[in-house]
Amino acid sequence: MPYDNGKHRLRQTCGPVVESRGELRLVSLNLVVYPVADNKRVISNIYRDWATMGFLELEGKRFVVFGLANKKSVACAIARVLTAEGAEVIHVVRSEERRATARKLFPEAQVFLCDVEEEANIERVSGEIATAIDAAQGGRLDGIVHSIAFANYSDGFKPFHQTLKKDFLQAVDISCFSFVSIADHFKDLLDSDASMVTISISTTRMAAENYGYMAPIKAALNSSLCFLAKSFSAFSRIRFNAVAPGLLKTSASAGIPGYVDSYLFAEKVIPRKQALATEEVANTAAFLLSRRSSGINAQAIVVDAGMEVNYFDREIVRKAVGD
């Protein structure tokens, strides 16, 4: 994008921060300033015109977000952060009802349908998005968010050893394998330095009875990160990471029996005595999607506001054992 104010002409470039021979390079803005009429450089004017890029440098990037359900969902929070940072967000949702919700929340965004339980749907939507981004002419995605999880608790909670095989395998298919399948079917649409981020949980080794059988499935999701990172490294620098949040106040979690009590307990365990906010999870996801996190790969980043280090808080222990 050229810029000419009669005194300075700018063009995009990638170069180190140097100033010599009448040329000023601003690497943080990816610009070069050439004096036209004189040698006076008005840096403040240049910054006013061009210094809109944030630390994450997400402006103009394009991301696909799978899993928006409503305004309280993690996928929605991530999309809001990305949009606020100047990125283009493409939504993929499960149903027409959710498509209407996504369009209401993000009127400018493209929204596609895909029930990931059927792999053919993932293949189909990858083709639709390829057309939408003009992939044939070089259009690419800078990252994908996978915020999808499902478990069938319609018959209520059972002891873990009574988990039905069909329910367990369905949850693995939707909550874990879909991430692998999306990576495979979208690999040709991803920029070589793209980032894929999924949503896990803060720990898979705490036997919370009201979480049913999902922790082992999230453990499988976490394990898939290193295998995806390794297999994709043969042809790209695409990274795979997870955000692993503590307890959140979402519509999905509100439907879990006993979850409110667990949420309130977590709030007391967190050192700051304030629950984890969904936006805090979204901010971490945005960082992992950005090039600023280029050194992080195959990791599950715990975001629990310090909950895991404070289970033996003095007040909690005192109330548990009595004075």
- What is the CATH-assigned architecture of the largest domain? 3-Layer(aba) Sandwich
Largest sheet at a glance? 7 strands, parallel
Residue ranges: pLDDT <50 for 5 or more in a row?
1-5, 7-51
Give the overall shape, derived from the CA principal axes: globular
Short précis:
β7 (88-93), α3 (96-105) and β8 form a beta-alpha-beta unit. The protein has helices at 43-50, 74-84, 96-105, 119-132, 165-186, 214-232, 251-254, 259-269, 278-289, 314-321; strands at residues 3-4, 8-12, 19-20, 23-26, 31-35, 62-66, 88-93, 110-113, 141-146, 190-199, 239-245, 299-303.
What does this 3D model show about the protein?
The structure is a single chain. The chain has 323 residues and is of the alpha/beta class. Helices cover 37% and strands 19% of the residues. It contains ten helices and twelve strands. A seven-stranded parallel β-sheet has the order 8-7-6-9-10-11-12, with helices on both faces. A five-stranded antiparallel β-sheet has the order 1-2-5-4-3, with no helix packed on it. It is globular. The model is unreliable at 1-5 and 7-51 (pLDDT under 50).
How would you summarize the topology of this molecule?
Elements: E1 3-4, E2 8-12, E3 19-20, E4 23-26, E5 31-35, H1 43-50, E6 62-66, H2 74-84, E7 88-93, H3 96-105, E8 110-113, H4 119-132, E9 141-146, H5 165-186, E10 190-199, H6 214-232, E11 239-245, H7 251-254, H8 259-269, H9 278-289, E12 299-303, H10 314-321
Helix pairs in contact: 2-9, 4-5, 5-6
